[in-house]
Amino acid sequence: PQTIYLKDYTPFGYLIDSVELTFKLHPTKTRVLSKIAFRPNPEATDNRFFLHGEDLTLISAKIDGQDVTVRHVDGGLEADGPARAFIWEAEVEISPSTNTALEGLYMSNGMYCTQCEAEGFRKITYYPDRPDVMATFDVRIEGEEPILLSNGNPGAKGEGFAEWSDPWKKPAYLFALVAGDLINHPGSFTTQSGKDVELNIWVRPWDEHKCAFGMQALKDSMKWDEDVYGREYDLDIFNIVAVDDFNMGAMENKGLNIFNSSAVLASPETSTDANFKRIEAIIAHEYFHNWTGNRITCRDWFQLCLKEGLTVYRDQQFTADMRSGDVARIENVLALRARQFPEDQGPLSHPVRPEEFQEINNFYTATVYEKGAEVIGMLKTLVGDDAYANALDLYFERHDGDAATIEDWLKVFEDATGRDLTQFKLWYSQSGTPKVSVSEDWDAESGTFSLTFTQSTAPTPGQDVKDPKVIPIAIGLLSPEGEEIQATEIFEMTEATQTYQAKGLSVRPVPSILRGFSAPVILEQDIDNTRRAFLFAHDTDSFNRWEAGRDLARDALLDMIENDAAPSALYLDSLRKVFADDTLDPAYRAYLQAQPGESDLARTLAAKGVTPDPDKIHAASKAFKQAKADALKDLLRPIYEDNQIDGPFVPDAEGSGKRALANSVLSLITKLDGGTLAQSQFEAADNMTQKLAALSQLVTAGKGTDAITAFYDQWKEDRLVIDKWFSLQVALAGPDDAAKVATALTQHPDFDMKNPNRFRATLGALAGNHAGFHHKSGAGYKVLTDWLIKLDDLNPQTTARMCSAFQTWKNYDPDRQALIKAQLERILAKEGLSRDTSEMITRILG
Ligand code: BAL
Ligand code: ZN
């Protein structure tokens, strides 16, 4: 496969003034007619007229009304393009119903839908399918489906046809079309300038009762973007469509967002608080793309973080405003460490702005998204809130309608703030997670407290040498009694080694470092557990307080794993004191007692140079939980009772926080009562949050057989709930059973490998069951590999994405490494392996 490099970027030889598309829908013989007005691009040096095209049957091609001879070349066609303005017309035939890759135009449960990002439009018609080619689109859809949708504003509509017109120039990746037997959950929004916008969530009739939450989230997002970023919606209508078969979470097509049904449909009976929170965030994310992604798009796919990092950052800000900011930060950091850190510390490590790829679909990664968002957060910390707001205003003013680059983005900040961002730009180009180590010094005579920081980043693929980065380190100082004696300050680290000093202190302070996780680094602090316990009890920064408790728990767990130690009394004592504090926000309190997961422990061991033993980690994790339950015994039942809610289920911060705390306590109570309370919660629950938490506890306690059957019988008609049913059984299976349970479920009549949600619920859950996946027999590796090989023929994108389950393989012992390597080589040897999967496996093998 061909590698594409950022350095090779050249503009396309032509500009497009308008695109007219007509679709004559048919499951296997859809005709797409295109009429495109091209003119030479004065800024281009290469005027080759090349149009991308894949899996298309060309029926006819004309230039200015005359048949034209085209040359079919790799990835598309070429024709002799005149050196003047001209009209290209083509007719192609495509087969949506056999398109299982879910890219381009495809069918999902009888409805037509599209996914064009990144390079799916070339499966719809011949076109310069690159984000820097922007045009207005007029679309006519002919089909017998009652609802026919595309981007922009609605035009003429009649029996068997509908027309749509999008006045905003856009790249082809934002094109969308939907046709099906759908009903709308309607809403409306009046923008800040008084324009009425029609809102719709389009679903199958049986899902109408699951739309209200998503509609409210959409209105909240529209309002928030006006209030916080001054961004107003720019069409008469905003449509969202729920689709069952979808590779991603959702897609921000202009005016017609298409959502994986799991990312928009919700009801209290069928969705958990976590689902509601995710839906709210994804609806916001896709809506926010209207400005950060659509009005200002990316010049090329290397700039993906320009829209994704910024839009994730914006959706994180939104969530923090809608819910608890403290808890939101913890959740973001947990996700970053679980998904991005392993990526950045393994063979798939790549810069936030990659410089080469074979298949761009493989770069929709935690690094581009989540680390990309962290980079923006650091930029805001460094320049300050007001300067950030000014810079964003300038960005929207200067680049509206552009296909922009990271250079453009940083130039805006330089111009708005006068700051030189040359060194900061390394965050975009240098991969790897920096380590920041810190040592302390106290000069009692002068009352000077010093923190000396040293930063380093290990080599990553293709990058042996790393330069020091700009790292904003938030520091606060506490007195030995736990009073804050210095509020949070930002120390800007720019050198490899640099010292921070606080002067004029009367006592040696206790520092709280990297508050709020002010930079995506690994902080190495040589502190003992007494200090950690102190911070766990007293830190005035909520993030660092939680972090101290987690570090203490992690250290206790590692001691159990490595030295067969007993669970740390210091930790259990500290936890008791903190956990008893009922003035704390319940959601935050639930996180205070959560322990690091097994994969996290395995990575921590590997980073210390210790080979992780998945069985030992699993056993220690269970024993640790039991010890917590024993130590907190008398507190548990009152906390459980205090956090039950009378009245109807409301998926807001307050209610979800109480349920999170009660359910976290239930998991400890189950360690003591063997599942009695879980059984009664399971039977009484009127909402999925409590139902699923109880079911998980019953399964974990080995008492889940009847409940699993009852749950299935109750929900077998609801695909999204049955995804949970598949996932839970695999995720909670014991180490010896996980591969067997996953295999048995793949034989269940409801298993459907063509549905990415169901595939991930089953095989993704296996990859996430640490001790089961890494079972010494290799059964976990084999089952996943068998299915990846099968799926690759149908859906390369989801297959490739799931290969990352193997990215940590070099952390394990030689036997496990050999088992995994054999499976990776088996995938690579598959005849006709997709470009997506081939690139992933080659990179993982290193
Ligand atoms: N642009 C792909 C889906 C998303 O990030 O919103
Ligand atoms: Zn996005």
Order of strands across the widest beta sheet?
Answer: 6-5-9-3-2-12-15-14
Q: Number of helical segments?
A: 26
Number of strands: 31
Largest sheet: 8 strands, mixed
Helix percentage range: 40-55%
Shape: globular
Count structural domains. Answer: 5
Structural class: alpha+beta
Task: Please give the radius of gyration in angstroms.
Answer: 27 Å
How much of the sequence lies in strands comes to 15-25%
Distance between the termini: 16 Å
Describe the structure.
It is a single chain. The chain has 846 residues and is α+β, with helices and mostly antiparallel strands. The protein has 5 domains: 4-181, tricorn interacting facor f3 domain (Immunoglobulin-like); 297-429, Neutral Protease Domain 2 (Neutral Protease, domain 2), CATH 1.10.390.10; 437-459 and 468-519, Sandwich (Immunoglobulin-like); 529-673, Alpha Horseshoe (Zincin-like fold); 716-846, Peptidase M1, alanyl aminopeptidase, C-terminal domain (Zincin-like fold, Alpha Horseshoe). It is 42% helix and 21% strand. The protein has an 8-stranded mixed β-sheet, with no helix packed on it. Strand 10 and strand 11 form a beta hairpin. Zinc ion is lined by residues 285, 289, 308, 311.
